[in-house]
């Protein structure tokens, strides 16, 4: 890509990434949440790969890394869900943390944690799918 | 309200029909975007900002992925003829017969179940929330989340969310299996 695209995307991808983080962490207060925030975070990485080409990142390692991150995120999700079984009542997905004041950033018990881990999982999954296609092209040629 | 929705839905239908008939796959993908972005406007008109945000970003990412796939593969659409000519004699392509039969059966079946389902529903615009009224009244007190969608997704219906995440992970494993670097011997 040209220098204009590279410079703009170098500035913008950070902004896009932190907008995704904002959507994740405020998912229990405003519209957004895990799925939308995770997709925006994946968009930041996709922008970098599209602007700087396939060679700037060591793509083969990145693909494995994103798959591992995805699996770890869903494992943490399950762990938090199962933690309610021995911390609170005998219910899967029991909201065992303190609910707090509704409307504050730290409130609603386990809902923000679930939001964050679902977001990480979605971001890693979409980025893995994108990388799979890019690496497929490299092998083909 | 319903008139605006009807106009947008007609536009979406036109876009998807053009998608089927476009020869160039890139223009097919771009006209397919009309369907997704029209759906975003529909969600915003129906006051569902959560769904609108998710639909918008997922639409953009899938559009980028599909354009990337078209860039590295082919732009031409492969068309299949309904008759095959072998040594001067014409035979009917059996695959097209299968297409037409399954398509007709599915359209008739969906139409039947659509009529069955819509006959018992409330008229358009009236909320049918007999069971979920408890969630709307006490959701903020029970979960502590101001955004009721997050409260339902991650507290009342957290099992569904786990299922969605599992579906996503299974889809990624499927993509990695199909597009693996080296074939198995």
Key features of this structure:
A: 141 residues; mainly alpha; 72% helix; flat; B: 185 residues; 3 domains
Quick overview:
The complex is a heterodimer of chains A (141) and B (185). Chain A has 141 residues and is mainly alpha-helical.
Would you write up a description of this structure?
The complex is a heterodimer of chains A (141) and B (185). With 141 residues, chain A is mainly alpha-helical. Chain B is mainly alpha-helical. A two-stranded antiparallel ribbon of chain B has the order 1-2. Chain B is 71% helix and 4% strand. The interface between A and B is large, with 55 and 42 residues.
Calculate Rg of chain B over CA atoms. Answer: 22 Å
- Poorly predicted ranges of chain A (pLDDT <50, ≥5 residues)? none
Unreliable stretches of chain B, pLDDT < 50, 5 or more residues?
A: none
Work out the helix count of chain A.
Answer: 4
Layout of helices and strands:
The complex is a heterodimer of chains A (141) and B (185).
Chain A: H1 3-25, H2 34-52, H3 59-87, H4 111-140
Helix pairs in contact in A: 1-2, 2-4, 3-4
Chain B: H1 2-21, H2 25-45, H3 49-72, E1 83-86, E2 89-92, H4 94-119, H5 133-143, H6 148-156, H7 158-178
Antiparallel strand pairs in B: 1-2
Helix pairs in contact in B: 1-2, 2-3, 5-6, 6-7
